[in-house]
Amino acid sequence: MSALVMPWTGLIPVFHVRIGCCGACGDMVDAVLRDSFKGRPPVAECDSPRHAGLIIVSGMWNEGLAGPALDVISQAPDAVKVLVAGDCAIGRGLLAERLGRMEPVSMHVATDAEVLGCPVSLEALSEGVRNVTR
Amino acid sequence: MEFVGKLAYLVLFPGMLFIILAGLAARFVIAGVGTAVAGSQKAFRFNGAGEMIRSARAENIATGGSLRAVTWIAPVFKVLALSWVSCIVFGFLPGDLVLVFALLLAAAGTDTLVALASTNPRVKQGAWPEAASLLAWAVPFALVVACVALRTHEVSLRGLIAWQTANGVLIVAQAGRLIANVGAFLALIAGLVSAVAIMRLRPLGRSYGSGGPGALLDDVSGPSLSFFIAGGLAMTFVVPLVLVALFFAGPAAHWYQVVFWALKAAGFLVLLGLIDVLCARASSRRALAWGAGIAGGLALTGLALVWIGVTA
C-alpha cells in the first residue's frame, strides 16, 4: 500500500484472502493485483479488509484456517463483494478427488462470483474480477 | 457576526475546503515530478480525490475501545489545525510563529495519537516510529522558527512577511551581516528536511501504509478514513506555504504577486517531490537521527550564525 492508502483513483480496492493449498491460484491473484499487463482489471491491492470493495478468496477451505479467514472477511464492509478463485476454493478439482470431500468456500461465505481453473488462468481471473466489479 | 466570519474563514477560504482542494493540486505536482523522473504513469494518476470520495461513501466499521472516538475526532482536528495555519499565513487570522509551530505539531501529533489508541497490537507497535517521525521534524523545525524570529526580530507571521517585503527574502536580506544570511540558509535546509518528514515523504517521513501488516490506517474506514486522506492532502499544501512565508515571503497586494507566491510554493513542491522520488524510505531510527540530529544540528548552527550576524 503506497501513499495515502490507495494511490490511484478509480481503482477498486481488493483484499486477497489466501487460505492455503499449492499456492498457484494465489500467485495468479497476486499477478492480477500487482503486475501490469494488457486487459488488467481496474483494481489495486489493499492491506486491510476494512478498505476493500472486493475480497478474493483462493485456496482450500480447511478447519485450521476457516476461523481466521472468516474473522478477516467479517471485517469487510457489508457492501463488499466476494470472488472465489480456483477449483480448490470451489470444492472440486484434483485435490478434491484425492481427498474425497472438500467444502467449498460458498458454504461458509456468501459469494458473488466463482472462477474455475486449476490453477485459474490470468485471463479468466481478470474477466471474473471485471464482471463482479462492474 | 465577526465570529461567523472567522468560522467561514476556517471552513471555506482559506480554511478547510480551500486547503483540501489546494492539497489535491499539490499532490498532483508531487506525483507529476515522480512521473517525470520514474516514468511511471501510475504515479501521475494519483491525486487522492477518488479514494477520498469512495471512503466518504463507504461504511464506517466500528472499532473497539477508545479508537472509535479518536478516529472521528483526530482527522477533523488535524484539518482544523491546518486550516488555522492557512488562515494565519493568508492574514485572515492573527497568529505568531509559535502558534503556527504548535498547530503543525498538534496536526501531526494526531497520527501518533491514533497509533497509541489503537486496539490492534500491530498498529500500536507503530506508535514509537510515529513519535520518532514527529520528533524528526519537530526538533529542527522549532530551531528553524527560532532562527527566523531571531533574524527578523518578528514573532508574528504578518510582521515576518512585512519584514521580508521591506528587506528582501530571508537568505539574501539586506539587513544585518552576511553571516546572518548564511545562518538563514542553513535554517532553510533544515526547514526542507523538516518538511519532508512532516509531509510523510521519503526519506524521513512515514507513509500511511508503512508498518508491515499493521499500517496506521488499517483499522480506519469510511468517512473517518476520508478525513484522514483529506488531512494528508491539506498537509501537502500547508507545509510548503509555511516554508514560503518563513523564507521567501513577499508582497501580496496585486494578483500577480499572489501568483508569484503560488509559484514559490510550487517550486518547493517540485523540490520536495524530487527528494521523495530519488530517495528510499529510511527506518524510523535513522529518520530520527537524520532529522533531530543532522537537521537539528544544521538549524542550531544556523541559529548561532544568525545570532552572531544580528548582534555583532
Describe this structure in words.
The complex is a heterodimer of chains A (134) and B (312). With 134 residues, chain A is of the alpha/beta class. Chain A has a single domain, classed as Rossmann fold, CATH 3.40.50.12280. Helices cover 34% and strands 17% of the residues of chain A. Chain A has five helices and five strands, in the order E-H-E-E-H-E-H-H-E-H. In chain A, strands 2-1-3-4-5 form a five-stranded parallel β-sheet, sandwiched between helices. With 312 residues, chain B is mostly helical. Chain B has one domain (2-311). In chain B, 74% of the residues lie in helices and 0% in strands. Chain B has helices at residues 2-11, 16-38, 41-45, 49-57, 67-89, 97-117, 121-124, 127-152, 157-167, 178-198, 222-247, 255-278, 284-311. The longest helix of chain B is centred in the last third of the chain and has 28 residues, at 284-311. Chain B is globular, with a radius of gyration of 19 Å. The relative contact order of chain B is 0.17. The model of chain B has no long low-confidence stretch (mean pLDDT 90). Chains A and B meet through loops of A and helix 3, helix 4 and helix 11 of B.
Inertia-based shape of chain B: globular
Number of H/I helices of chain A: 5
Radius of gyration of chain A: 14 Å
Number of helices of chain B: 13
Largest sheet, spatial ordering of strands of chain A: 2-1-3-4-5
> Quick one: overall form of chain A?
globular
Binned, the helix content of chain A reads: 25-40%
Approximately what portion of the residues of chain A adopt beta-strand conformation?
Answer: 15-25%
Q: Report the sheet-strand fraction of chain B.
A: under 5%
Please tell me how large the radius of gyration of chain B is.
19 Å
For the record, give the distance between the C-alpha atoms at the N and C termini of chain B, rounded to a whole number: 49 Å
CATH topology of chain A: Rossmann fold
Q: What is the string of helix and strand elements of chain B?
A: HHHHHHHHHHHHH
Number of domains of chain B: 1
Low-confidence parts of chain B: none
How would you sum up the major sheet of chain A? Answer: 5 strands, parallel
Low-confidence stretches of chain A: 1-8
- CATH class term of chain A: Alpha Beta
CATH architecture of chain A: 3-Layer(aba) Sandwich
